[in-house]
Amino acid sequence: MAAYSDSERLAELRAFDATKAGVKGLADAGFTSVPRFFVHPDPDLERTPRANLQVPVVDLGGVAADPARRAAAAAAAGGAAEALGLFHVVNHGVPQQVLDEMLERVRGFHEEGVEVKGEYYTRDLSRKVVYNCNFDLFQTQAANWRDTLSFSMAPEPPRPEELPLACRDIAFKYASYVQKLGTVLLELLSESLGLNPDHLIKMECADGLRFFMHYYPACPEPHLTLGTSKHSDSGFITILLQDSLGGLQVLRQNQWLDVPPVPGSFIVNIGDLLQLISNDKFKSVEHRVLANSSGPRISVACSFSTNRATSTRLYGPLNELTSHNNPPRYKEVTMTDFLAHFNRKGLDGRSALDHYKL
């Protein structure tokens, strides 16, 4: 590749960003190569050998009424959170029709014209509704082949008219199901840590809920770029809905392993803040998404955290999980400061937790 000055790169980024059309706009324009600022370094693109990851399954069927099933689900969730930081959830109570409609409506928004979706295009991450291509476009060394619509659904959901029409109704319906599911999962994870079921809930771990609705168009040169580069999630847990296209990978013992979609299930990721408060007992999983020559791939990531806007609560390793032989491994931090650090550094391949280690 020819020499690429910082000023040239910045000019190209600004011109691309000004279109408000994202990578969908490049795909629609018939680009047969990816712009230079999407090209990732060779080590980031390591893809071989590829194998499927055996993802643990947590079955929530009957957990509300059957103590034995609840204990089994808590043990399964806790074991997966310790060993891998990720698991499938089945029998979760969200109707398949709702899952299908959510994916279809997200696709509908991203396939609107720029005159419609451009109204929501912004680099101001504090806005209620944020649509853009790469939240860290001007910070990252290489952009990802992905557009994203995001908005907060808790603790203060937007007014219906503030959301894009394409996904307005389904967003509120989907949020009601996901909030219930998130509460159940956090209760089970609390129990697996030997805490009261409501311990993490009382810590406000489910007070905040933000949707990240990703759109990955078909890429003309998927071997040169990524859909999402290596990262771990910032919150406590993430509930991920993905379509059937695939592309999600998890880093396991320095090898990237595929996480094939399981129809009707969710993927649950342990986030950085849950690793922090569990003092490394639970693991925040590093993952990425490959670019693909077919598409689009649609996914909806629902991140649980505290109230991002107003919470002043300090989060550090729980006293119940630390001791003389297992001292705290992290400094205390507020959710606001942690997210500010996460967003400032972008998806640079390094864990945000490193900044808070003692």
Q: CATH superfamily name?
A: B-lactam Antibiotic, Isopenicillin N Synthase, Chain
User: How many domains would you count in the coordinates?
Assistant: 1
Based on secondary structure, the structural category is alpha+beta
Mean pLDDT: 93
State the distance separating the first and last CA atoms: 42 Å
User: Helical amount among residues, as a percent range?
Assistant: 25-40%
**Oligomer state of the chains in this structure:** single chain
Taken from the alpha-carbon principal axes, the silhouette is: globular
| Proportion of residues in extended strands | 15-25%
Written as H for each helix and E for each strand, in order along the chain, the element string is HHEHEHHEEHHEEEEEEHEEEEH
Looking across the biggest beta sheet, what order are the strands in? 1-2-10-7-12-5-4-3
Family: Belongs to the iron/ascorbate-dependent oxidoreductase family.
Domain Fe2OG dioxygenase: 205-311
Keywords: Iron, Metal-binding, Oxidoreductase
GO molecular function, one term: metal ion binding
Description:
This protein has 358 residues and is α+β, with helices and mostly antiparallel strands. The chain has a single domain (6-356), classed as Sandwich (Jelly Rolls). It is built from nine helices and 14 strands. The strands form three sheets. It has an eight-stranded mixed beta sheet with strand order 1-2-10-7-12-5-4-3. It has a four-stranded antiparallel beta sheet with strand order 6-11-8-9, with no helix packed on it. A two-stranded antiparallel sheet has the order 13-14. Strand 8 and strand 9 form a beta hairpin. Helix 3 crosses helix 6 and helix 4 packs across helix 6 (168-192). The longest helix is centred in the middle third of the chain and has 25 residues, at 168-192. The protein is globular and about 55 Å long. The termini are far apart. The model has no long low-confidence stretch (mean pLDDT 93). GO terms for molecular function: dioxygenase activity; metal ion binding. Keywords: Iron, Metal-binding, Oxidoreductase. Belongs to the iron/ascorbate-dependent oxidoreductase family. This is 1-aminocyclopropane-1-carboxylate oxidase homolog 1-like. Residues 205-311 form the Fe2OG dioxygenase domain.
